[in-house]
Amino acid sequence: MDKIAVLDFGGQYAHLIANRVRRLGAYSEIFDGETPAEKLHGYKGIIFSGGPQSVYEHDSVKCDPKILELGVPILGICYGHQLLAFMQGAKVEPAHMREFGLTEMKVLKAEGVFKGLGPNETVWMSHGDSVKQLPPGYEVIGETPGEHAAIANFSKNFYGFQFHVEVVHTVHGQKILKNFLDLCGADFSWKIDDYIAQEIAAIQKTVGDKKVFMMVSGGVDSTVAFALLEKALGPDRVYGLFVDTGFLRLNEREQVKTALKDLGFANLHIRDESKRYFDSLQGKYDPEAKRKIIGDLFLEVQQDVADDLKLNPDEWLLGQGTIYPDTIETGGTRHAAKIKTHHNRVPQIEELMKKGRIIEPLAQLYKDEVREVGEKLGLPQAMVWRHPFPGPGLAVRCLCAHEEKYPEHHTLVEKKIDAFLKPYKLTGKILPIQSVGVQGDYRTYRHPLALMGAVETCDFDTLDKIATRLVNQFKEINRVILTIAPNKIDTLKVQTKYLTPDRIQLLQKADAKVSEFLVKHHLQREIWQFPTVLLPLSVNRESGECVVLRPVSSEEAMTASFYRMDQKLLQDLCKQIFEIPGITAVFYDVTNKPPGTIEWE
User: Fold this and answer.
1) Which residue out of 15, 127, 148, 164 is catalytically annotated?
2) Which pLDDT score, from 0 to 100, does residue 394 have?
3) How much is the pLDDT for 336?
4) Less CB within 10 Å around the terminal CB: N or C of the chain?
5) CB atoms < 10 A from the CB of 133, how many?
6) Out of 121, 147, 166, 372, which one is annotated catalytic?
7) What is the pLDDT of residue 527?
8) The domain containing residue 491 runs over which residues?
9) pLDDT reported for residue 332
10) Is 574 known to be catalytic?
11) Which one of 63, 78, 398, 458 is the catalytic residue?
12) What DSSP string describes 326-347?
């Protein structure tokens, strides 16, 4: 057996590690973190994933200690690194300073997994605990200020990284991972064609003589899943349903309908349920409540259509374009913390999954693999490389509020923040609303900080460092944004706002400006995703709302960097949006993921 075993300790990263192993051409298999050592005999190497817990907590997930006696190379990442060290007698404690984002690591020994690296490496951190005292036989091979960033026991071929080697933001992460796979003697013959052939066979076996009722959105995930199901079953056995929720982009229903028809999906049907969605969401402001209502409504609509068509439920399965980040962010693995509920992971869907009524041909893949599958299936580049768009649509980009909400002692916190910002000629304003973030593999619901002052004189590298330091130092915030238009907040007022057609129409106008901008400047591939967010805040006026621009660079969505836009282009885009009636301010999000999720909700 030439596979690498990945032990899942509940973070966001086990499947991403497996993805990265596959991208290098090696075979991998994922196991629960508590899998007995006897089931791992014969694997060429073992990787311990990250996770949201602390190893010193009595109920934290641990692994079978006999795994350390299997005689194969082991790599521990983040929680996995702490667990590997802890099991061998190390001291693990809360870090003096939490680290979320890019960090410079000094390479102390360019051997083993660090073979071929330079003296300094850019790595990606997301942790609140640290290994303070090494276990016997280990030495530090990489360090960041005050932290053992990487440790090694060369005689056992055991390695531990506090940073995440599997994310693209660790610049030479794939090289480091390849070094580990070489130490394992891994076989490098895996390719995406193997997955497609295996999945087609799996679909045919799962579906049997039934048919599939496929929920489609026009996005890359559901379109590739639709194409894969049709290839496995034939077009007559796959029924596609596109639901207009009212939260689509401007003119999107007709655009999706035309695009899917042009691709040959003849068995596609459109249903306008916008009034039903708006009515159900009236008065709702909590992001999780919004997501669950939307997810439940998708199922209700599907059932109504099935009833109208007199479909026998015993003859049909429900198809979804779910990919792995949807599952992990919903807390869909045994030890994972919930970040946000995806519409395709609401409780009703979970119950159908237990009954074997759901089929998800892409559920183990990440976006980069989905796109490769789409290209192999012959889908056009424009569809395969379309920007990701959430299933709930603009509903999770249109924040709602019913009252002003500040963190405790926010004026005192702002004074401390301003003291930190003084050398940069900047000041900060904590906004009286909250957004979702992910820190240390846990969901956070905290406040954005708006920077004001000479933001145009700070380069993006400096702003990146400022934003990272601020979020790491001040627990009240999980996101940092630039105040672009106007450049100063004199007054700030929360508007009592919910999801209403007029708000979505306002957001559609701003979002359309962004879409036109992307096409005009040929940025569709350079920017991985570009959410346009509407905030129920009026700046320097009695009424109106604000827009946040949130372009990011990423490959797999588990991590992302804010996009460093040309200043002239940024000012031009902000001006266009600021001129839309009803918009009182435009902000630019300079938060990476982690600590800020790509979407604000």
Assistant:
1) 164
2) 95
3) 45
4) N
5) 12
6) 166
7) 95
8) 410-589
9) 45
10) no
11) 78
12) HHHHTT-STTPPPS---GGGSH
